[in-house]
User: What shape does this take?
Amino acid sequence: MEEEVKNITPDERQEYVINMGPQHPSTHGVLRLVVSLKGEIVKNIEPHIGYIHRGIEKMCESITYPQIIHLTDRMDYLSAHINNEAVCLNVEKALEVDIPDRIKVIRTIMSELTRIQSHQLWWASFGMDLGGLTCFFYGLRDREKILDIFEETCGGRMLVSYNCPGGVMYDIHPNFQKRVKDFIKYFRKILPEYDQLLSGNVIFHERSKGIGKLSLEDAISYGVTGPTGRASGFSCDVRKHEPYSAYDRITFKEILHTEGDTYSRYIARIDEMWESMNIIEQLIDNIPEGPFAVKMKPIIKLPEGEYYQRVETARGELGVYIISDGNKNPYRVKFRSPNFVNLSVFNHIVKGFKIADLVAIGGSLDLVIPDIDR
Amino acid sequence: MLLDIITNNSITAPSEPWWKVVYDFSSLTKWVDTSLHSSMSSFWATITEMLIIGVLILLFYALVGLFLVYAERKVCAFMQNRLGPNRVGPFGIFQTIADLFKLLFKELVPIKNADGFLFNLAPFIVIIASFMAIAAIPFAKGLHAIDLNIGVLYVIAVSAMGVIGVLLAGWSSNNKYSLIGAMRSGAQIVSYELSVGLALITIVIMAGSMQLSVIVEAQRDGWFIFKGHIPAFIAFIVFLISSTAETNRGPFDLAEAESELTAGYHTEYSGIKFAFFFLAEYINMFIVASIAATVFLGGWMPFHVGYWEGFNHIMDFIPPFIWYIGKTFFVIFLMMWFKWTFPRLRIDQLLTLEWKYLLPINLVNVLIMAFIVLMGWHF
Assistant: This one.
């Protein structure tokens, strides 16, 4: 006991250690942050993860490929559709299946809708983190409209499980195109309201500008991707650099900002919502005719080998790495999840800021905990 | 004399219209006073009057608290595209009463290693501070429990006492979040107390008195916010900002900052003790709104426009109590409005706002106001 006390430096003895989480209003899940404070100033944070670890990667080894879809749904539950797409693309790549255009376009539209609803929820909860409770209800109100579109076509709302190897589960609902167009018309009018409520607010500017700066070098060396990385100027959009599905036939710009602070991470996501709407508008009127799924074998067996596919989820780059030994189950599956990487930079950028900034920075990283733990 | 009921003997002139006589509560209080004195000794009469006032204020306190909680939930629901409480009773008006019963019957969770005495004392200090402040507020002509000649000072002093309860609650809870919340609250209230005081002093200069009834009476020919040119308006804005900060309401709710400190200083409280904190918050809001209404918006004085005799008569016809409640709730609505619109400030920004902006503005404002009054430029 004596020795332990002696080893602590006076600085450390001054530290005021609080546990943020696993149950805390601002950690958006069961993340536990051990925060060392000196007064209000954050000295160090230590993320403790694993509270919602379900062993998804291990479970994948004992189930078939179509079944993996239902587990990837539950990783980053806000990008459920995009996660599924990554697995499907990987399986299709391994089997060298030719995917018709209709499926590609449907998948792209659904992915972009998923991205918008994810950013809407992020905007809602980010506003709440900063104390603007009204944002939460505005964000969820608009997200509901996308979930209704999902419900009509996929049956599910959040965990849609709409993809399957070789295509999608069902054809799109006859109302789909009309409702998506209605939504875009509606949301183009509503999105400036988000700016009025939060982005234009003086208090918000004070709270977010210059807070939690992440330099380009750090973003690259930590491997931070998604809007978080692009806000630091790291051009990392997989949709642009390694186009999959229908992204090669449309024109869109990669949102890049250079400041790397909380505000530019915020603006990057708002801009992404605009850009996603542009993408959907380009595709929604020209969905080609054709089958909604390719006929696959009843039991899918991947040829022996290693396969990797990456996609751009709402939070960054998701990589799916499958090793197959030729059986109906994969030999080993590994997900490179964007949130886990983005969490690793948290401690680096939060030091020296205040508790309130810790919450704001955590919100701007947009962490989804089940994706970290898997 | 302690009680205004005893001292207030302003007799209404017989020439005044009947409604002015009816709306003057001093005749009623005078009647109660004389009938009590005729039936018992003066000592017991005073005691009885104290009891009556105590019970009445307690009742008023509880009703206002319940109503404000309901109003806040409805207002915030309106701003957030929701319906708000709508199940218990028509439009959910009995929801807060149901919540009250829930809080009454809830278990008081004992806290390990908490400082028991201080832990139990804290909610009472908070609620007593707000209870005492309500006594000095003039609700209508002749309707206030105590009319001190330093009414403004008394209200500021007594309402500042609440911070002791908040600090004690944070300290004694044996919870790190609570302690941070309490320290924030301490820094915040001590700072913003200055602005509240200076904003009120601007008006005290105009009225020439600290007695709340005199301040109201001085606004018979025009509310101070209109009479005092721009300085009075600036003082009103500063008062609105700093009193919101003083009552720990959003966007200055750092002491309980839900997303940062879970619930700040009252994290560990449950049941009726939590209800005390909750109620005191709303009553404090009511008190600062009534002070704003009394000092800036003419208290229970009706709204008059220049020489529009007919209009002024109609305005006179509305009872002063309704005027007072209307103005108070207008200010409360303003406070709710910006609570549900703005994000929260950070602690250093909060203190910067006070010490670098509000305080200098206030000091200059007081100076300008003194100059205006000296030159007799106000209306």
About this structure: The radius of gyration of chain A is 21 Å. The first strand of chain A starts at residue 16 and ends at 20.
